[in-house]
Design brief:
Length: 276
């Protein structure tokens, strides 16, 4: 016969936490950067690359494979935001950068150790202007995307030494809202379900660039309009017409008296984010 409790205090005193199967909570961090690469030809603009920070695992499971920075939440002392900031500092040596919660991943088999539910976060930074150096087991990988057709995305990550390649299938979930889910088609190089996390995070970043000012978290304090346009184009994966781009950023930036000179180009006025 089911016991009737007289108060919440009595219920909690008799509550058997072991009655339900336990699970672990974790956080994974997509740390994106769009930064200039070295260019030996001073007459050409420095090419900008989108990159992501990965960590090389030293322990099982997935020993010696690359993965996103991540770790388990301490349920007694941390919120998810606290956990993410700790992981960012511990695994990458970075702190005080833009963080935003993205998605939660709860597949039954996503971690071979136990049932793990993970919340992903997106972090944005200009890696060329970081004051702190990342840990030795962390590395920036340049990102190249190939849309094989309307349903498949192939991603290549390269840090100059290691190359990681995986393919993702896009599955339309809701026709009325044009929302997609992602499934791993091919992956041998990246640990856990992190290919899904990376592609979903990149889709979110592309979408947010259009209706928020999020891109300025990846910019230095002063920049030319050409440099800002390059960052938009790298994130969106397409060229923007100058007039259309100027309309997008018209109310977001302000002109300064600073000039950028050198590099074999005419001096250009520098701008800054208006709401910083």
């Amino acid at each position: 016969m089911k016991k009737e409790y007289q108060s919440e205090a009595e219920f909690l005193a008799n509550y058997n936490v072991n009655k339900y199967k336990q699970l672990s909570l974790s956080a994974d961090i997509l740390l994106f950067s769009v930064s200039e690469e070295d260019n030996s030809n001073y007459r050409k603009n420095s090419e900008k690359k989108m990159s992501i920070l990965l960590i090389k695992r030293h322990n099982y499971p997935y020993k010696d494979m690359w993965c996103l920075p991540g770790g388990f939440l301490n349920p007694e002392t941390e919120t998810l935001d606290d956990c993410t900031k700790r992981i960012l500092k511990t695994e990458t040596n970075l702190s005080n950068i833009y963080l935003e919660q993205l998605y939660t991943y709860d597949a039954l088999d996503r971690d071979p150790r136990c049932r793990v539910i993970s919340t992903s976060y997106m972090a944005l930074v200009d890696k060329n202007r970081l004051d702190d150096k990342v840990n030795e087991n962390a590395s920036w990988f340049d990102i190249t995307l190939y849309n094989d057709d309307g349903n498949f995305i192939t991603v290549v990550l390269d840090n100059g030494k290691d190359t990681i390649k995986f393919s993702i299938k896009k599955v339309l979930r809701e026709l009325t809202t044009d929302r997609y889910t992602f499934k791993i088609k091919d992956n041998k190089d990246l640990a856990f379900d992190h290919p899904l996390v990376i592609v979903a995070g990149m889709e979110r970043l592309r979408n947010k660039v259009g209706y928020t000012d999020i891109v300025f978290n990846m910019m230095p304090e002063y920049f030319t309009l050409g440099e800002l346009q390059q960052v938009y184009e790298v994130i969106l994966g397409k060229k923007l017409l100058d007039p259309a781009f100027r309309r997008i950023i018209a109310d977001k930036v302000e002109k300064t008296e600073k000039m950028k000179t050198g590099g074999g180009h005419r001096p250009s006025y520098m701008f800054r984010y208006k709401n910083k």
